[in-house]
């Protein structure tokens, strides 16, 4: 199970511990079984505890509460997640700059022509500017 999934589950549960597994699944775009597996792993690690509300008429209502260990783990995962996203951002920024330099080599090609290049078309065939 990915640390990113654990991070996202912990993050959602911190804000709303009453989310159902089905709601978590929908919010995260992960299968219900995947959410169940992740929650069970977090419970086993002691990061999350389940609380059933005995006074509630619906005995299937649970709250998934982050433990102090869960908050510490979420903090560590947040740092790792942020570091990874900054690296992805830097990589994308460099790629965008490289692509911009390539497009500057062909001043007669506009952005829509560049999109055509991506689809395999040759915008120079119909260009009267060259």
Quick structural gist:
The protein is built from five helices and two strands. By secondary structure, it is mostly helical. The chain is elongated, with a radius of gyration of 24 Å.
Top CATH class: Mainly Alpha
On the 0 to 100 scale, the average pLDDT is: 83
Tell me the count of domains.
1
Number of helices: 5
Structural class: mainly alpha
What keywords describe this structure?
Arc Repressor Mutant, subunit A; 5 helices; 2 strands; two-stranded antiparallel ribbon; mainly alpha; 130 residues; elongated
Describe the structure.
By secondary structure, the protein is mainly alpha-helical. The protein has a single domain (3-118), classed as Arc Repressor Mutant, subunit A (Orthogonal Bundle), CATH 1.10.10. The protein is 62% helix and 8% strand. The protein contains 5 helices and 2 strands. It has helices at residues 3-15, 21-28, 32-45, 68-104, 111-118, and strands spanning 48-52, 62-66. A two-stranded antiparallel sheet has the order 1-2. α1 (3-15) packs across α4. The protein is elongated and about 70 Å long. The mean pLDDT is 83.
Which helices and strands occur, and which strands form pairs?
Blueprint: H1 3-15, H2 21-28, H3 32-45, E1 48-52, E2 62-66, H4 68-104, H5 111-118
Antiparallel strand pairs: 1-2
Helix pairs in contact: 1-4, 2-3
């Amino acid at each position: 199970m990915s640390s990113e999934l654990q991070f996202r589950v912990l993050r959602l549960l911190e804000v709303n511990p009453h989310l159902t597994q089905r709601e978590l699944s929908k919010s995260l775009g992960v299968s219900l079984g995947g959410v169940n597996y992740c929650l069970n792993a977090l419970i086993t690690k002691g990061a999350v505890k389940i609380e059933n509300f005995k006074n509630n008429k619906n005995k299937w209502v649970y709250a998934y509460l982050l433990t102090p260990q869960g908050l510490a783990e979420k903090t560590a995962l947040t740092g790792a997640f942020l570091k990874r996203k900054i690296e992805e951002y830097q990589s994308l920024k460099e790629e965008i700059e490289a692509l911009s330099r390539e497009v500057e080599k062909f001043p007669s090609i506009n952005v829509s022509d560049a999109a055509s290049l991506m689809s395999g078309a040759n915008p120079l065939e119909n260009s009267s500017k060259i």
